[in-house]
Amino acid sequence: MSDPKDDQTPGITRRKFVTTVAATGAAFTIVPRHVLGRGLQAPSDTLNIATVGINGQGFPNTRALMGENIVAICDVDYTLLDNALTRFKAAAANPSGAGAGQQRKRNPSKAQLEANAKRPPTDMTANTRKFIDQQLPKLKRYKDYREMLDKQKDIDGIVVATPDHMHAPIALAAMDLGKHVYVQKPLCWSVHEARQLAQKAKSNAKLVTQMGNQGHSTDGARTGQEYLAAGAIGDIREVHVWTNRPLGYWPQGIPRPAPLPPDNPQRPLRWNGAGVDARLAGALAGNYPVPDGLTWDLFLGVAPEVEYHPIYHPFNWRGWVDWGQGALGDMGAHLIDHPFWGLDLGMPTEIETISTPFNGVSYPSATTTYYQFAPRGTMPAVRLTWYDGGFTPPKPEEIGDEKLNGEGGILYIGSKGKMLQDTYGLNPRLLPQSLHDSFGEPKAKLPRIVHEEHEVNWAEAIKGKAEASSPFSYAARLVEVMLLGVVSLRAGGKIAYDGAAGRVTSSAKNGNATVDANEFLTREYRPGFKLT
Length: 532
Known about the structure:
By secondary structure, the protein is an alpha/beta fold. It is built from 16 helices and 19 strands. Helix 2 (58-64) links the parallel strand 3 and strand 4 (69-74).
């Protein structure tokens, strides 16, 4: 495993701000593809893109890239694939989808207005029509990503938008074949996989990688970074990050479906916690055949064998330990991203997750995770607290009768004031209002992403016209921090972490048991599916 400090993202740490936009106006030499070699693109080329996992985020990811050439879609569930194609056809006929799809502040800053004026327009409806008319008739469909990679030789870049547990196996296999990769957050399922992806990206430096934490590309997020870099709120020792997920989006805190135990008059099922859980599991159980179009074995992939149930697929996989990473994995990349970026946090030294009851198979209904980060240079130690499932930090008195954003947000507490950001790092504002007004807009030092659409930024980076906003060299370290919160949850107690070695150095106490949390940094991979 590599030291996470070996891989530093150019131009995105607090210590080193990039002051010029990456080569967007430069002239490019047109080079034949065969001269560039496997997986590398002549800047003038239209990219051949394949998507693995079309439901959920795979749909908007693919649509955003329809200015390129979509050559293949792979999904273990052909019903979902067919539904996506139907939705693409509907989108092509809907003029309301013609905008760039960028997230805008209601009161854009001067830097945002200037960046917006320079952005080339994106007509997503026209691109979708081009896909329907020109690309769909030739589109290849697959269920197994391994077959696609073996047969489809013309792919330049792959979007991986499957459940979390398959992100790393697919991305690593694609990178071994010289394919550029865009991988949905949380990038991977385990800390070990995060390090594998970072190392693979480092050893294949010509490949362009991107994680799908799209807020990282927005102007608002960059304005927030500039407030922090300018010292607007002084030294920061405390950060609070929260989300309302899972909310009603997917279930958590439930037992795995299982038949009720046989009636035993000598030991009747009680109405205690265990008895209620058994009844809930029995209520969920039933005879649910695998739907037509779904290949369940391919869905399971690297994960253990579990019988199909509609509570798992589609989408609800996120709340189950076998396949997802719960609310922290879902939204941490959109929220923890910004203090991790702006405060140059590195790896935490201690992590402790507390939660509502956790049965080991379905993530708890709500958690709070405490991260401790050591001092960095002249910056003090930081305690970052994560909340989900309805838990929130104390409301800062400076906002008066206003409520904290119910969806989620970030609260920085500094020696000179505070700062709030919404989910994705949007709408940064200083507290109290008098500080925001007196400080004014921070000087723009970070480059604004020319194409604020995160997927298009990745495509432009492949062509040599931009730098990827959230490459694996950065994203893998961010995700490692997130997943350490899950490690502490599964271990059942506080852990100490050696970031350089990538090892837990303390034994967690789970009741009377001592747990080696290092076992939760990785997993056993099912035969036929493995990391490369």
